[in-house]
Amino acid sequence: MKVLVVSWEYPPFIHGGLGQHVKELLPALLATDPLLELHVVAPAFEQPDSIDSYGRTTVHWVSVSQPHAHSYFEDVAHANIPLAATARSVAETYGPFDVLHVHDWLASWAAFTVQDLHGTPLVATVHATERGRYRGQIHSHMSVEIDRAEAELCRRADQIIVCSSAMMHELERYFGVGPAKITVIPNGIDGSRFVPLRAADLTEFRARYAQPHEQIVFNVGRLVYEKGADLLIEAVPAVLREAPDTKFVIAGKGPLLHRLERRVAELQVESCVTLAGFLDDDDRDRLYVVADCSVFPSRYEPFGIVALESMAAGTPVIVTDVGGLGSVVLQGKTGLKAAPENVADLAEKLTQVLVDHTQATLLADNALGQVEECFSWQVIAALTLRVYASAIAAAEPP
C-alpha cells in the first residue's frame, strides 16, 4: 500500500497534539504493515524546500512562513498554495497512491488538489473542531472561516477518523456527518519512555519542586481558557485545608499566565503554587513520575493525551468529565472524574487521592494496565490501516 500523508505538523516542526500524533502514528503504521510506503508533505517553517528519505518514508518539505496570530487563517490558507503544488508534484512523480491521509483542516486544500486530480480516496483525521472549543458558538471572522474549512473537509473526506466518541458527536451535530463515515480510534502512547524513569532515582529532581514530606499535584498544558488551569488554582485553598503539605506545579505557557499569577497572589498561595512555564519533554516526563497525582480540569478536550501520559507514568490522574477525557478515564477504576467547572468537586477528588494512598496506588496500577492494553500505537496503527482498506474498497468500482 502506498499512502500520501499531508500534515501541517511533522517533526521537528511540532506545535501541539496533532504533530505528536503524526510523529508516533507513522512509524507504527510502517511496523504493522511491512509493505507500506509513506510519502509526507509538510511545511518547513522558514526553511528551504527539501526532501528527506529514510526507510520506507519520504518527507517532502515545503518552505512556508510561520502564520501570525492576527491573520492565522489567511496565512495558513496562503501556505496551502505551495503545499498543494508540492502534493500535486509528489502524486504525479511517485503515484499513484492508494490513500491520501490529511490531518485536520490546516493542510486540507493541498489534499483536495490531489483528490480532485487523481480521485485518490481521502481519509481525514479531525483532531478538534472550532465550534467545540467555544461550546458550539462562533465568535469571530477567523472562527467562521475555520469552521467552514472543517465542514468542507468533513464533506469531502471518504472516511473520517476521530479520537473519541465525543468528537464523533461533534461532527454529527455541527456538520451532519453520518456515523457510517466516522471511525473512533483513540490517540496512542508509547509508555516505554517512562519505564527507566520509574526505576531511576529522581530525588534530586523532585527537590526542585517539593520537600520529601510534601506531595506534588502536577498539571501541564497550554495556559488557555479551555484547559482550565484557573479552575485548579481556585481549588488550591480547599485542598490545602485537608492536605496542607501539598505543592501544585502548573507547567505551560499561554495568554492566561499573568491572570493566573494575579489569582495565585490574591489567594495567598504563592508558597504552594509553582507556575513552571515551558518544560522540555524530559522534565515534563520526570514530573509525571515524581508527582503524587496529575490533574487536567479542562473545559474542552477532544481526547487528552496528557491523561494518557500520566497513566503511562504510573501516576494517579484526575480529569474533568468532558470530551475525550471522560472516555479515557474510567471513574473509580483508572482515575477520578470531576464535574466540569465544579471547583468544589475538583478539590474533593484531589483531596481523595492525596489522602487515600491505597486508592491512589490502585488507580495508578489499573491505569497502567489499561494503557498497555488499549492505547498502544500498535493497536492504533492496526485500526488506522483498516480505515485505509475501507476507503480503498469504497472507491473501487462495483
Keywords for this entry:
398 residues, alpha/beta, Rossmann fold, 2 domains, eight-stranded mixed sheet, six-stranded parallel sheet, 16 helices
Description:
With 398 residues, this protein is α/β, with parallel strands linked by helices. The chain has 2 domains: 2-188 and 376-395, Glycogen Phosphorylase B (Rossmann fold); 191-374, Rossmann fold, CATH 3.40.50. It is built from 16 helices and 14 strands. It has helices spanning 17-32, 72-94, 108-118, 130-133, 141-156, 165-175, 195-199, 203-206, 229-242, 257-266, 281-290, 305-312, 323-328, 343-355, 357-374, 377-395, and strands at 2-7, 37-45, 50-54, 57-64, 99-103, 122-125, 159-162, 182-184, 215-220, 246-251, 273-277, 293-296, 317-320, 336-338. Helix 12 (305-312) links the parallel strand 12 (293-296) and strand 13 (317-320). It is globular, with a radius of gyration of 22 Å. The protein starts with a strand and ends with a helix.
Please identify the top-level CATH class of the largest domain.
Alpha Beta
Into which percentage range does the β-strand content fall?
A: 15-25%
What is the tally of helical segments? 16
Tell me the structural class. Answer: alpha/beta
Instruction: Tally the beta strands.
Output: 14
Which term fits the overall shape? globular
Q: Determine Rg (CA atoms, Å).
A: 22 Å
Mean of all residue-level pLDDT scores: 93
Number of domains: 2
The CATH superfamily title of the largest domain:
Glycogen Phosphorylase B
